[in-house]
Amino acid sequence: MKIEKNIPAQSLCDLTISNLSVWFTDVEVLKNISINFKKNKVNCIIGPSGSGKSTLLRSLNRINDDVHKIKTSGTIHFNNENILQKNQDVTKLRKNIGMVFQSPCVFPKSISENVTFGIQQHRKLSKAEKTSIVEQNLKRVSLWPEVHTRLHQSGNILSIGQQQRLCIARTLAVQPKIILMDEPTSSLDPLSTRAIENLMITLKETYTVILVTHDINQAKRVSDHVFFICNGELIEEGAKNHFFNAPQREETKEYLKDEACIC
To answer: Residue 50: left (phi > 0), alpha (psi -120 to 50), or beta?
Structure first.
């Protein structure tokens, strides 16, 4: 299938996919996907349920490795290295390519311990470093004013929206280069959703963000570049304004009209 692209001149991220196909047992979930992600942008992946969006996202830091009978072909290059090679240091990879999941994954630890949990897997921290890292990253996700007097209380006392921001703070603490977000607001109320969306827009100043969302309106609000995936194939991609205002493929037009997939 010919893929429609409308790509303005802009910096490419150090993360590229070439001819990626993924099978679960005998089912081909992704079919010959090639993508150049855009640096310091919100790269948004949209498409109907079951189209392969999350499988694609989880391929970018090898989380799919744990899926039974998975088979992958093609390449994913990060910093000019194919991360699908068998000798890839997956722990190091996941430090550089962080992940925020659909539902908050708060550990049964204090708020401060949740923030430092990831980075302590990579190096020892002094008490002063821990204090600084906790404050810095909670401020970055606009959670500090709400929790600074409760840092030693369990992270589970927080609201779902606060827990998701806490998980983002934990991801930021390990200083990744790229942040993957898999429908991070799907379980949140509108106020918390807007807080996370505003945070994504701020984060792209420092990071490259790759977002999977089922919400077309959210993609319109936060994305810079959009990738439309249907039935495991990349149908069309483009800069946000052109993608939503002047889509080229009939499949894209139909999906944007009423979220029906005719692929």
So the answer is: left
Estimate the crossing angle of helix 127-140 against helix 160-173, to 10 degrees.
Answer: 130
- What predicted TM-score, i.e. pTM, was given to this entire model? 0.90
Give the mean pLDDT of 79-87: 90
Give the pair of three-digit tokens for residue 94: 């996941």
In tens, the pLDDT along 44-54 reads: 999 998 899 99
CA-closest candidate to residue 184, choices 129, 141, 247, 149: 141
Q: Which residues contact 38 (CB under 8 A, 6 or more apart)?
A: 10, 11, 12, 13, 208, 224, 225
Q: At 10, is the pLDDT very low, low, confident or very high (cuts 50, 70, 90)?
A: very low
Structure tokens at 93: 């990879």
| Record: fold of 4-258 | Rossmann fold (3.40.50)
Helix segments in the chain, DSSP class H: 53-59, 90-96, 111-116, 127-140, 144-147, 160-173, 190-203, 216-222, 240-245, 250-258
216: its two tokens = 């077309």
CB of 229 closer than 8 Å to CB of 235? yes
CA distance readout (Å), 117 to 110, 120, 172, 222 = 10, 5, 11, 29
pLDDT tens, 173-204? 999 999 999 999 998 999 999 999 999 999 99
Separation of alpha carbons 72 and 56, rounded Å: 11
